UniProtKB/TrEMBL annotation:
InterPro entries in the cross-refs: DUF34/NIF3_sf, N-reg_PII/ATP_PRibTrfase_C
PANTHER family for this protein: NGG1P INTERACTING FACTOR NIF3 (PTHR41774:SF1), PTHR41774
Single GO MF annotation: hydrolase activity
Protein name: ATP phosphoribosyltransferase
Originating species: Pseudomassariella vexata
Keywords, sorted A to Z: Hydrolase
Entries under Gene3D superfamilies matching the protein: 3.30.70.120
Length: 114
């Protein structure tokens, strides 16, 4: 298979409260994220703990914090591999279903194979 015919790989990165980490990982892994080519490794991810900050606006319904007040909260950053665009899309949908926030903070990056 030539490099040009290989499907593009993607990296999904998201932030989640520690108490919801297991549920979000279960959801994205169930959607196919965290697998490496050849199937020898599954449920792979990298995590790191840090501090997030946000101020809920007047129309917000925050899971954590109070409308109008600046909030600092512990969050876990999760990075995982998605072997193609469809897996990335399914994983984002699963993340949104499992995540406690009104709008989860996430990003999807297309990866290059050099």
């Amino acid at each position: 298979m030539s490099l040009s015919s290989k499907p593009a790989h993607y990296k999904l990165v998201f932030f989640v409260p520690p108490s919801n980490l297991a549920a979000c990982k279960t959801a994205i892994f169930g959607a196919g994220a965290g697998r490496y080519p050849g199937g020898k490794y599954t449920e792979c991810c990298w995590t790191a703990t840090g501090t997030g900050q946000f101020r809920p606006g007047d129309t917000a319904n925050p899971h954590i914090g109070t409308v109008g007040e600046l909030e600092h909260t512990e969050e876990v950053r999760v990075e995982t591999l998605c072997l193609d665009m469809e897996i990335a899309k399914r994983s984002v949908a699963a993340l949104k279903s499992a995540h406690p926030y009104e709008q989860p903070s996430y990003a999807v990056y297309k990866l290059e194979d050099f």
